[in-house]
Design goal:
By secondary structure, the chain is α/β, with parallel strands linked by helices. The strands form 2 sheets. Strands 9-8-12-11-13-15-14-19-20-18-16-17 form a 12-stranded mixed beta sheet, sandwiched between helices. Helix 1 crosses helix 2 and helix 7 (341-352) packs antiparallel against helix 16 (583-596). The protein has 2 domains: 9-127, no CATH class; 134-634, Amidase signature (AS) domain (Amidase signature (AS) enzymes, Alpha-Beta Complex). 27% of the residues lie in helices and 20% in strands. It has helices at residues 50-64, 86-95, 209-214, 223-230, 276-284, 301-306, 341-352, 380-396, 405-412, 421-424, 428-433, 435-453, 461-469, 475-495, 541-545, 583-596, and strands spanning 9-13, 16-20, 37-44, 75-80, 102-107, 116-121, 124-133, 139-145, 152-154, 169-173, 190-194, 234-239, 290-295, 310-313, 333-338, 366-370, 401-403, 507-512, 549-560, 567-578.
Length: 634
């Protein structure tokens, strides 16, 4: 069978690069042009007001869309209720300053196109995608849709290599093609997905060249991605992760692929956690609305913290994990990243509820403050977190309740042994969470790879360590770990944070996720991280209790960078937990809280909050994608 020919066309208008999708829109041929040319489609429902409609549309396109520009007015298609030549003169008057060369008038009844920018080629209109450089190294595979809206293909295009020689290029469609409505508020919403999630048409790589080699492109989407596509979301690419979503230190543990860059502060801080690429993309690029990640033991919460974003680990089983590479079904969850609380709440409804559900009018009445995790110091960072907690108390009209989990544990005696909570839980994740990683994924993968290629797969240092360590966990240890996990969950729900009732949690619990201290990506280590999950820390609370925990960026603190020898700014973030099943309620509450306390959403680039002070800062990253110096060959 002869190979099927396909074309990938990259074009430039001024200094901005574009991708012309190879599949044209349906409809009758327009004009007789042989060369590719930019074009804008307008719809005129009332031909008597053509001038007003065109003027308003040009202003609206420029305000709402980062793909369209006046350069697309070189050719214009006017869709009207009838092909009345009377509107041509009105259009010529409005378009004269833009040097429009051709105006085509078509009837809406012959098949309306979405308004916006296109490329006119051989009489056909092809969707226009703007190309952006992935200078943060967050993406592993940019994507564009196929003719099947639920299936994608890798983007075969490159631009800006002269400025960003090692960067991939990401294509985004015009926002004008998909107009959000009250019934479909997510139409055209751009999202990136972590590369342990199956996306139809692409390979799932999980930061492993061997795993990528072993499996062909997926033919189905992970269920959570299928759900979002059905709501109108558009996937613009797959994002980097640690290998098999395990725990790795940048940059030393990243072997198969380079770690993404955290844009905050001096640009050389750790990205932290396996959803590193997802967080780096949202923190770097204004043109990306959301990104999906997963959290087993902190892989959404940690990246959200160090990159100054909203992120949430939801309740266990709040949404499907089918079609995603697992670690352990005891704690694997899907969540997202956002730059402002209102959008974050909408994403939560898309993932875990319904946009049509009424908002929660009742507020929690209790705020828990576990003293063993809060520092008794008075640093600049501590003051930022304390200031936010005071605002939270005022918002709720209650004062925090200081508690000691260890004291409550000792008083209530959930086990017969004379043992502290921390000691009792020391090996719980190590014994209960790790065995399934070996039995259900890593061992079958290694076996299949050896049977296929006659040799073992290459593994990053952390996974090399895990390959030797995981089989040493005994069945007895696993059984004991599961028992202790179950006992802790029951005790926690009874004495600390009860499950939600009808989606509402009356109690919140606060945790100090950020430290105010830099953590550089270029730190030399003695060896791989050798993470086993041993120990008990505050980040274990929500996985063990199966409830949601959201990260809120509430400010930033300064430090002197050893990279830039200048004052830089680190995000300051707090974690808020609530009862299991209160995912939508928690993010709705956070949106109301941040609005009432006038805490703005975060920006992209080196500083999450640009207006907190006027001190200058240096950064490798532009504060806005619109300010990028886009030039170079393509």
């Amino acid at each position: 069978m002869a190979a099927q020919l396909s074309a990938s066309i990259t074009l430039r208008l001024g200094e901005t690069a574009y991708y012309m999708h190879q599949v044209p829109e349906q409809g009758n041929p327009i004009g007789v042009n042989q060369m590719t040319a930019p074009c804008t489609v307008f719809t005129l429902h009332d031909t008597s007001t053509a001038k007003e409609v065109l003027s308003e549309s040009i202003e609206r396109f420029g305000r709402l869309d980062d793909v369209w520009s006046p350069d697309f007015l070189q050719n214009v298609v006017l869709q009207s209720l009838s092909s009345q030549e009377s509107i041509r003169k009105d259009a010529e008057d409005i378009l004269r300053p833009y040097n429009t060369s051709s105006i085509y008038i078509t009837s809406v009844s012959s098949g309306a196109l979405n308004e916006g920018p296109y490329f006119l080629n051989m009489g056909r209109l092809h969707p226009a995608y703007r190309l952006y450089p992935d200078y943060a190294g967050a993406f592993i595979a940019p994507t564009v849709p196929t003719e099947d809206p639920y299936c994608y293909k890798p983007l075969d295009a490159a631009a800006y290599r002269e400025t960003y020689p090692s960067s991939l290029t990401v294509a985004v469609p015009s926002r004008l093609y998909h107009s959000p409505t009250p019934e479909n508020p997510f139409a055209g919403t751009r999202v990136g997905v972590k590369d342990i999630m199956d996306l139809c048409g692409l390979r799932t790589g999980a930061s492993s060249r061997a795993y990528t080699q072993l499996h062909g492109p997926r033919t189905e989407n992970a269920e959570v991605i299928q759900k979002l596509l059905g709501l109108g979301f558009i996937v613009v690419g797959k994002l980097k992760t640690t290998q098999f979503a395990d725990s790795e230190w940048p940059t030393c543990d990243y072997v198969d692929y380079h770690a993404p860059f955290n844009p905050r502060a001096d640009g050389y801080q750790t990205t932290s956690g396996s959803s590193c690429g997802s967080a780096a993309a949202v923190a770097s690029y204004e043109w990306l609305d959301f990104a999906l990640g997963t959290d087993t033991l902190g892989s959404i919460r940690a990246p959200a913290t160090v990159q100054g974003l909203y992120g949430m680990r939801p309740s266990l089983d709040a949404t499907s994990f089918k079609g995603i590479i697992p670690y352990t079904k005891l704690a694997d969850t899907v969540g997202g990243f956002a730059r402002d609380a209102t959008s974050f709440a909408k994403l939560s409804r898309a993932l875990y509820g319904s946009i049509n559900d009424p908002p929660f009018s009742k507020k929690p009445s209790k705020v828990l403050y576990p003293v063993e995790y809060w520092p008794e110091t008075s640093t600049e960072h501590d003051a930022v977190l304390e200031s936010f907690i005071v605002k939270l108390e005022r918002h709720l009209g209650v004062e925090r309740t200081r508690i000691s989990l260890e004291e409550i544990w000792a008083t209530t005696k959930p086990v017969h042994e004379n043992i502290t909570m921390k000691e009792y839980l020391e090996h719980v994740f190590e014994w209960a969470g790790n065995p399934s990683q070996w039995k259900d994924f890593l061992s079958p993968f290694i076996t299949k790879y050896r049977n296929t290629y006659g040799r073992d797969p290459a593994l990053n240092p952390q996974l090399q360590f895990k390959r030797g360590y995981l089989p040493t966990i005994t069945d007895e240890q696993e059984k004991e770990g599961l028992k202790r996990w179950k006992i802790f969950k029951s005790w926690y729900e009874t004495n600390i944070l009860p499950p939600a009732i009808d989606g509402f949690s009356d109690t919140l619990l606060l945790l100090p996720w950020s430290t105010g201290k830099p953590d550089y990506r270029d730190t030399y280590r003695d060896g791989p991280q050798r993470f086993t999950g041993i120990g008990f820390f505050f980040y274990n609370l929500s996985p063990y209790s199966e409830g949601p925990e959201a990260i809120l960026p509430v400010g930033q603190t300064s430090y002197t960078s050893r990279i830039t020898n200048s004052t830089e700014h680190l995000p300051a973030s707090i974690g808020i937990s609530s009862g299991k099943g209160s995912d939508v309620m928690l993010t709705d509450f956070i949106a109301d809280l941040m609005t009432e306390t006038n805490i703005q959403g975060v920006g992209v680039g080196s500083r999450a909050f640009e207006n907190i002070d006027n001190m200058g800062t240096t950064s490798l990253y532009p504060q806005s994608a619109a300010q990028l110096p886009l030039r170079g060959d393509f």
